[in-house]
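#struct-pred

JT: dropping the chains for the assembly here, can someone run the whole complex?
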Amino acid sequence: MKSTYILGIESSCDETAVAIVKNGNEILSNVVSSQINIHKKYGGVVPEVASRIHVENISVVIDEALKKSELSMDDIDGVAFTQGPGLIGSLHIGVQAAKTLSWYFNKPLIPVHHIIGHIYANQFVEPLEFPLIALVVSGGHTELVWMKDEWSFEILGTTQDDAIGEAYDKVARVVGLPYPGGPEIDKLAKDGKEHYKLPVPKTEKELDFSFSGLKSAVIQLIDREKRNGNEINNADLVYCFQETALNILISKTLKAVNEWKPKQLVLAGGVSANSRLRYLISEKMKEYPETKCIIPPLWCTTDNAAMIAAAGTVAFKRGLFGTLDIAADPSLEMNEE
Ligand code: KG4
Ligand code: ZN
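RK: done, full complex below.
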């Protein structure tokens, strides 16, 4: 059978990334140009700066991905790109690059939802088996997604306010850790212990999440301790924050697994790099031997284009093509696919 070669482009936030993937699971090249060191100076991603750097980098990254794959555009079957969600200016650069390649080389254009990319990154670990539940945890998303079948997405639960990664980043900032805060809290919490009591926010729907109350509780706790002249132990504080946040995440995920009985539970998104989450979920999932727990390798938890090409390969096979008038959609919904 003829192989499928998809070129993927990802530029939704602060990574300019291009990858070429064979048959949806074999990476021929995966180039990521990160802007993190530039945004670090500002304590977060500055959208205007991000889009300008994407403009500078995109052609170079496309060239490098093609070179590394030892293919030319003639060999490529389709051009997949992140249509949304993300920062409009950043997305726009990837969309324009994808449209240009598609038009010039006469290749099908394949729009991909960024989170669907994160989910399909797990195909590099092993084939996805349906039905599955994806626990999507990133800087912009906290979702339990039910996939009854290939390319079918139903949101079982979502955050009512902050995404979990956002909560990590905000708590990190108030305790004086650099951006991005998630990996910093992951490290510092290893030296912490149970000490501070933090509240578990309530949600109306059982499988929904809420993290903004937890973040505010951390801020109030710091203020209170300062007022009382007590020194804060940052390691203990981030430990307690992390345990509370992960407890919420894991207990709801287990509830969903128990109720929906999927064949697989797959983790997706930047926060799935968290060492404590990876440990706790694999331990707890031992109680559910009918559901296989798949944790993506660290390299594909962060934004990359291989995941967009992997999801793009599935979309390509289903004939889900875009036209040249397609635009970036910063708040693209998953069920609009
Ligand atoms: O998937 P991603 O790159 O962004 C979106 O698509 O939204 O995830 C970025 C988020 C950031 O909030 C970052 O702090 C968090 O993932 N993150 C982590 C870890 N590594 C990255 N959070 C907790 N522990 C980590 N080890
Ligand atoms: Zn992402």
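JT: nice. The two ends are 28 Å apart (CA to CA). Residues 186 and 298 are 14 Å apart (CA to CA).
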